[in-house]
Amino acid sequence: MEKLNLVKSLSIAERMQILLPHYKGKEDEIEDQLSKWQKRKSLCKKQHFEEYTQLLGIDPKEFNIGIKRLNCKDKELLWKQLQGKAWFKLNQKYLLKRS
């Protein structure tokens, strides 16, 4: 498995936190993944999603950044942050012991 695929293990909130600074002011240029995400069969109805974003104090455009298709630059940014996560370090340590 390619190491950059491990960035998929990050939550939407973690992805938003990392990617938002790099897309500030460019939110309108990002492909609308939110509409596609909301059209999928889900327990999260539109009303629930609106309540969720209000509760967290995030804009739907910010959420869209968290679920956007990742390009190589995004994956590199996320990879750098992922390597600093405690659970990731523990996982790597465990995998090294097993090999």
Describe the model.
The chain has 99 residues and is mainly α. 62% of the residues lie in helices and 0% in strands. It contains six helices and no strands. Helix 1 (12-23) crosses helix 4 (60-66). The longest helix is centred in the last third of the chain and has 13 residues, at 86-98.
What is the 3D form? globular
Total beta-strand segments: 0
* Structure annotation, total helices: 6
Helix percentage range: 55-70%
Unreliable stretches (pLDDT < 50, length at least 5) are: none
Main β sheet profile: none
Strand-and-helix sequence, N→C?
A: HHHHHH
Classification by helices and strands:
mainly alpha
Oligomer: single chain
- CA distance, first residue to last residue: 16 Å
Q: Assess the beta-strand content as a share of residues.
A: under 5%
Mean pLDDT: 87
Task: Evaluate the radius of gyration.
Answer: 16 Å
What is this structure's SSE topology?
Elements: H1 12-23, H2 33-39, H3 46-56, H4 60-66, H5 72-82, H6 86-98
Helix pairs in contact: 1-4
Please name the defining characteristics of this protein.
single chain; about 100 residues; mainly alpha; 6 helices; globular
Describe the structure concisely for a colleague.
This protein is mostly helical and 99 residues long.
